[in-house]
Amino acid sequence: MGAVQVRGEVLARRRAGAYHLLEVVAPGVAEAARPGQFVALRVGGPLSGLLLRRAFAIYRATPARSYAGTVQFVVGVHGTGTEWLAGVRQGEQLDVVGPLGRPFPLPTAAVGCVLVGGGYGSASLFGLAEALRARDCRVDMVLGAATADRVFGEQEAKRTAASVTVTTEDGSSGVQGLVSDVLPDVVERTGALAVYACGPMPMLRTVSEVAASFAIPCHVAVEEEMACGIGVCMTCVLPVIGEDGVTRMTRSCVDGPVFLADRVRWDDLGTVPADALGATDPGATDPDTAGLGAAGLGAAGLDTAGLGAGGPGAAGLGAAGLDTAELGAAGLGAAGLGAGGLGAAGLGVVSAGSAAAGAAGPAGGEQ
Predict the structure, then answer these.
(1) Judging by DSSP bridges, how do beta strands 139-145 and 113-118 pair with one another?
(2) Cα(58)–Cα(66) distance, rounded to whole angstroms?
(3) Which residues contact 341 (CB under 8 A, 6 or more apart)?
(4) What is the pLDDT of residues 52-62, one digit of tens each?
């Protein structure tokens, strides 16, 4: 079962430290959701000028039983869209698309796993912890944030995991420092054979380095800005090495958000590497204004998709003004996202009214 679009009632909303936890009725989404996937929500109401959806990692998905299926997700306020979403009331309706993206892969044998969450990126790890425990895997967790009120799920982690280590940058809770400071000790002490992580990109990079030092696999749910959520707009691409050894500009919304950490080219994030498949501009440093534009999205094989020589930046999807991007005549309109809507592009999970399916990474840092 693929992604579906539903209008669901807000069943509950409550504060969770610095964040807001929402539960929304979303039949079809809840039944298909797997740990690591995300939902994209329309924000601002029917008369809003906020075109782009906001992406959130699924915290909990409860299939239909005596009540319709529900999904829970965590909102951190970072801009107009998330501020509106944090203020919705119980009983109001939200437009939800999901589940989106690839989930965390599960080990085929019962092995020890360390789950590392940064801020409310830890939200996607609790469903994963349950799935791992169902396979008799030992689960240990490391949760980190800048301050104590930004550590999400500490009490639930203590009920779920064999051990929990908390870090805060200001020392207001747990060990003062970063998750990468304590992770080597946790891996060594537990004998873990796999690491899973979700959180800010700099954190994911350091977690990847720790896992590599122990020669154990690490799966990361990346944070990249998403302007559609379904693989059309190419604003969430990052350089990833394929099984064939070839680097491709890979869409984190459909080919991720979960990747093997050692396949992500962390040093080249935000660029189109000269050796990436289809790259034609070796000097590219900014996907919004250089590589993806001048190369015509050749690295993604979308030269003839109607995005033109200007690339997403010229189409109004650059670093500035995602909320007010014009998706009609410029760039994406020619790709069938204007008058024809996404259905005309063969991606009928969303309507033309929701042409952009997300301006944010599912775990955090969204607008």
Answers:
(1) parallel
(2) 21
(3) 351, 352, 353, 355
(4) 888 999 999 99
Alpha carbons 75 and 120: distance in angstroms, whole number: 8
Please answer whether residues 212 and 218 qualify as being in contact, where contact means their C-beta atoms are separated by less than 8 angstroms: yes
Give the C-alpha separation, 307 to 272, whole Å. Answer: 17
Query: Is residue 134 exposed (0-12), middle (13-18) or buried (19+ Cβ within 10 Å)?
Result: exposed
E strands along 146-236, which residues? 163-168, 175-176, 194-198, 218-221
pLDDT digits (tens, 9 = 90+) for 346-365: 333 333 333 333 345 676 54
What gap in Å lies between CA 313 and CA 110, rounded to an integer? Answer: 46
- Write the CB contacts of 202 (distance below 8 Å, at least 6 apart in sequence): none
pLDDT band at 281 (very low <50, low <70, confident <90, very high): low
Report the sign of the C-alpha dihedral through residues 326, 331, 335, 340, in that order. Answer: positive
Identify whether the C-beta of residue 5 lies closer than 8 Å to the C-beta of residue 42: no
| Contact (Cβ atoms closer than 8 angstroms) between residue 357 and residue 349 | no
* 8 Å CB contact between 88 and 13: yes
Q: What is the pLDDT of residue 232?
A: 87
CB atoms within 10 A of CB 74: 24
Q: Which regions of 177-224 does DSSP assign to beta strands (E)?
A: 194-198, 218-221
Q: Please give the domain boundaries of the chain with CATH numbers for all domains.
A: 4-100 (2.40.30.10), 113-221 (3.40.50.80)
Q: How far apart are the first and last CA of the chain?
A: 29
Q: What is the pLDDT of residue 226?
A: 80
Instruction: List the one residue out of 85, 116, 47, 152 whose CA is nearest residue 359.
Output: 85
Cβ neighbours of residue 113 under 8 Å, at least 6 residues apart?
A: 107, 132, 137, 138, 139, 140, 192, 193, 194, 195, 196
- Measure Cα distances from 147 to 17, 126, 129 in Å: 10, 21, 24
Query: If you search the block for the tokens 């430290």, which residue do you land on?
Result: 17
Asked if the model's pLDDT at residue 116 lies above 80, the reply is yes
